[in-house]
Amino acid sequence: MIVPTIARLIGIPEGLICALSIVGGIAIGLGVNWVIERILLTVWPSGRQLMIDEEGITLQERSGKTIRLKWSAPIDVRSWHFVVPKERGWVRKGWYCMACRLAQEDRVFVPYSFMDSAEAETLPQWSAFPELISSKHAARPENKHLLSRIGKQEPLREAENDRWDKGAEMSPADFTAILAEIDRRVPDWPTKRVMSDKG
């Protein structure tokens, strides 16, 4: 309704009004969607919180349920990143999704964050974040050389599935702080993880 009204006011011929309405409607819809998504990110948080103390790290759900991992017991750390293929909300195309799966016995949660690639690659733990390669990307003829790497990435794909179910998105600053704490508290990480991913 908006585009045809404006088009008639400025004297655009009727034949072009239909085409402009379609293009304008799509543009307006995308713009409204972008604004709404940004607003929702600030007023509709997931309700999950990560808390760290001297004894361990705890994920608290909105419902009040908690998952707690203790520093005194072994924690399996599996970390990875992937390139964001297209812009969504405030996350830019080409940024990295950085994720770190923490598991202790049957308790699992996955802190993750979206970060500018240049910022991510300056992290002290960057070498512990191998790239999770998209199967669709590797299937292209020019990327056949990636297929052998994909075959070795099943543990990371399982961890990515956990991110969808048990993930806790955080700001880059909070994610960086948690990585530093994990680095300090978990023996042989990130060195152990890097060696196992390479070999």
Q: Detail the poorly predicted runs.
A: 38-45, 192-199
Inertia-based shape: elongated
Spatially, the strands of the biggest sheet line up as: 4-5-6-7
Main beta-sheet strand count, sense and barrel state: 4 strands, mixed
Keywords summarizing the entry:
199 residues; alpha+beta; four-stranded mixed sheet; three-stranded antiparallel sheet; 7 strands; elongated; disordered C terminus
Q: Could you characterize the architecture of this molecule?
A:
- The structure is a single chain.
- The chain has helices spanning 2-9, 14-43, 117-120, 135-138, 147-151, 154-166, 172-185, 191-198; strands spanning 49-52, 56-60, 66-70, 76-83, 96-104, 107-115, 167-169.
- With 199 residues, the protein is an alpha+beta fold.
- The strands form 2 sheets. It has a 4-stranded mixed beta sheet with strand order 4-5-6-7. Strands 1-2-3 form a 3-stranded antiparallel beta sheet, with no helix packed on it.
- Strand 5 (96-104) and strand 6 (107-115) form a beta hairpin.
- Helix 1 (2-9) crosses helix 2 (14-43).
- The longest helix is centred in the N-terminal third of the chain and has 30 residues, at 14-43.
- 20% of the residues are buried.
Q: What is this entry, summarized?
A:
This protein has 199 residues and is an alpha+beta fold. It is 43% helix and 22% strand. It contains 8 helices and 7 strands.
